[in-house]
């Protein structure tokens, strides 16, 4: 056993989740692989938790950070101008497609969502918010109140008055067997019904993830967000797209996940991979919302010089190498390959995803019930074979995978081979 595990248990909270029976201590990274303290190399199919976007030890990012350090400029504040911050904001505003967009930087996704919710509630003078079932937006009081999964909510205190919609969550019996079009119609009915019955006066915003990350990479059918947006526009309700997991070309189809749904939101929040490991998050919003009376952000360290240097270098790398297009191609190798194998693997209940954000749902082959035990088994088996994955979802049986966008086609095939080998082994064990 690693000497770190008992020391970790002694001084760190028990609720920190370590995915493996014998947790891994990662000590080095290069390209799309990481190496643990015992020298085992892994193809990284979870990329931190999507915090690595363009692989490890990238000279462009390292040089940018070292150049910034060499200036001695580590002045972190919000009261002086910073060229790298303005330049990054210009790029993000342009890519967002939002009219007259302005950007505010934070250190994390949670802070980004807090800021977006503050902006929306200032602008609309309302503390009422709509969110989606099975969502995850962070664990501060505001973010947790729009998060929807009992096991991620440790209290019911909420600074917001929140109503939850269905969206990607099609678990209810009444939704089974519905076509996408009928399901969307039912969701729109539900939204209108909530607006007619559950709220008072104005609602500030709807916050939603284009693909629900922690929720198990669950996906709303194409057309749902567009249909929601029409109702929101009629009612003057703002739409906040939480792009913390889906931003920067991850979904292959578009630069931000919601753009793949043909929707331009009023605000987007982002974080995770933008700094390729350096902490950076933020909000890009319509200028009138960002500058609404009383609007103010939160984050002394937001937009600090080191994170800005890393983020500019990372975003330039994504754009220069057209990684969004590459994610669509490598993602298709993986998703198509898994779909093709599903028929012969009764433990695989579902394969879903877009670009380099894809998931497998493992089920008991006899009953079809979600099987967190098989998901845990998959994690151990793929670890043995040299691949890191993530798990989660409402029942803990979803295997989530999101490699760096720099994954090559060869690495995608290698990863697919490992995943299939693991699934075949586990499937055999259940037979
Ligand atoms: N929003 C989404 C969609 C997330 O997946 C997460 C984290 O997993 C957050 C917000 C919170 O981000 P952070 O952990 O950086 O505060």
Q: Biggest sheet, open or closed, and with what strands and sense?
A: 7 strands, mixed
Structural class: alpha/beta
Which consecutive residue ranges, at least 5 long each, have pLDDT under 50? Answer: none
In round numbers, the mean pLDDT is: 94
> What portion of the residues fall into strands of 2 or more residues?
15-25%
How much helix, percentage-wise, in residues?
A: 25-40%
Give the SSE order as H and E letters: HEEEHHHEHEHEHEEEHEEEHHHEEHEEEH
Description:
- The protein is an alpha/beta fold and 431 residues long.
- The protein contains 13 helices and 17 strands.
- A 7-stranded mixed sheet has the order 4-12-11-10-7-5-6, sandwiched between helices. A 4-stranded mixed sheet has the order 1-2-3-15. Strands 13-14-17-16 form a 4-stranded antiparallel sheet.
- Helix 6 (141-145) links the parallel strand 5 and strand 6.
- It starts with a helix and ends with a helix.
- 51% of the residues are buried.
- The mean pLDDT is 94.
- It binds pyridoxal-5'-phosphate (PLP).
- Residues 49, 108-110, 113, 136-138, 209, 213-214, 242, 244-245, 271, 281 line the site of pyridoxal-5'-phosphate.
- Pyridoxal-5'-phosphate binds at residues 49, 108-110, 113, 136-138, 209, 213-214, 242, 244-245, 271, 281.
